[in-house]
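[Meeting: bench + compute handoff]

Bench side (C.D.) handed over the final construct sequence. Compute side (W.E.) agreed to return the predicted structure before the next meeting so the bench team could plan truncations. Sequence as handed over:
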Amino acid sequence: MKLKIPKKVRIKFRLKTLRKHDLLRLLLIGIGLVFILLGNRTVRSEVEKRERFYWVPKANYIKAVSLEYKNAISDFFWMKVTLTYGDRNFDKKATKKDWEYLAKLTDLVTDLDPRFFIPYMFAASVLSWEGGMPEEAVRILKKGLNARRDDWRIPFYIGFNYFYFLGDSLRASQYLIKASRLPGSPKYLPLLATRLRSHAGDIKTAIRFLQGLLNTIENEQTREKIMKRLKALKDIDYLQTGVKIYRIKTAKYPPSLRDVLALGIIDSIPHEPYGGYYTYDPKTGKVWSSTDLGKKVKKE
């Protein structure tokens, strides 16, 4: 004879079992994470005697114990990124190891939750512009090509890094073409990709690329850096155009930029935004920045 259990009792029993089951799994995950995070404590303490050391767990260890909670754990490590980077004056006092630590954490976050977009933006903007790690940014961004197949911003960021930081216009154009084929991409991308193939290193191309990048970046510090770079490039383009017009009118390069000003071709010689000045070579007619676009400026 079967024992009939009332429906309400069966439901309560299932809920209790489910809660106990979930609590047990979460407990096991927590224990696993503790072992992973503290597993290298002995090694860490020995290394810290010699130098400051940052340790980030491997993604496969986290995946082994996190089960379906990878996204939540990814959020935990992303919080570590934001707290570290958000520290007051981080960009001024950060060492190479600080930036490597942020890169490793960002890499881990995108391994655990490859569809999470903000870490990709962080890699493209902060790691490249402020951390001076464009190669690492590209490596992280390439994971997003599969995870976010319909997001034009991922190949756009990769293309920008190849063009602007790594000096590879051909690869940059290939990624821009990929971006241009995705929904929501700006209409100017195919033309920009064509310009990259035919005018490598062209200032007007760099300006167009930076303007497009600025529209996708939210980080204020990175936006300031981009706007300063844009200002310098626009100034150089303006002065370079003046030199070309002077040469057309006189059949020779001007002796100095002041001669271009004296002829009324330009209204003024702009102030260089990095605290330097704009240089001019009368032999080649080339205008550039005395600070090499801020690269020669000493950090405080």
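W.E. noted at the follow-up: Residues 46-218 form a domain with the Serine Threonine Protein Phosphatase 5, Tetratricopeptide repeat fold (CATH 1.25.40.10). C.D. will use this when planning the next construct.
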